[in-house]
Amino acid sequence: MGAAQTRAAHSYQDLSHKTGFSLEQIHILHKRFKKLSGESETISRENLNNITALADNPIRKQIIEAFFDKRNQHNGEVGAYEEIGFDEFLMVMSHFRPPTLKTSVDEKTAMRKEKLRFLFNMHDTDSDGKITLEEYRKVVEELLSRSGAIGLEAARAIADAAMLEVASTSMPDMPADYFYEGITFEHFELILNGLEMESRMHIRFLDVDTVTMRCDRN
């Protein structure tokens, strides 16, 4: 094995440890990354924006921004990258990795929390630790009004009513005149407590389905 191959093998081992992907999966995803980037070492928002499978996704913008959100790298940084390399790309993809039969209860709990945090970050666009009414409105408007079945004002009304319901659910003793600043991550966890996230949260736009990919480690 040459020096370059040795370095690549060590790099893949490190990435496998950090992301939970097998060496085989990392190899497959690296090929997809290189195809997407045009053999470049980094990808941009434009690269992801050109993916046909994302064209009709109502939250395409949020999905793309998630790849460049520094919060999703688990390094304590806040902000956004202009471009990302394969390591950062793989870390984001790992949020969509489902558990396996070998995944322990503690690992499943940690995995669920990471998925919830990832979803929370997608909605908390200003990184202030809260999903505000305005941020929530934007998501609901894109989900509902783009279909043409409902108007913008109706979508806003639905968002407002949903946020009020969230406020009363997460803070049942909230005074009538209390100003609800937004959903915290703790409230977000409570709201989604009964939702099975482990296998539902997946992504397929690089000819790779993170649900059906083998998840056994090498």
Automatic annotation (TrEMBL):
Location in the cell: Cell projection, Lamellipodium; Cell projection, Ruffle membrane; Cytoplasm; Membrane
Topological relation to the membrane, as annotated = Lipid-anchor
- List the record's Gene Ontology CC terms alphabetically: cytoplasm; lamellipodium; nucleus; ruffle membrane
Entry keyword Calcium? yes
Q: Which residues form the EF-hand domain?
A: 111-146
Please give the Gene Ontology molecular function terms for this protein. Answer: calcium ion binding; protein kinase inhibitor activity
Keywords of the record, alphabetical order, are: Calcium, Cell membrane, Cell projection, Cytoplasm, Differentiation, Lipoprotein, Membrane, Metal-binding, Myristate, Nucleus, Protein kinase inhibitor
Any one Gene Ontology BP term: cell differentiation
Family membership, please give it.
Belongs to the calcineurin regulatory subunit family. CHP subfamily.
What PANTHER family does this protein's entry cite? CALCINEURIN B HOMOLOGOUS PROTEIN 3 (PTHR46823)
Protein name as annotated: Calcineurin B homologous protein 3
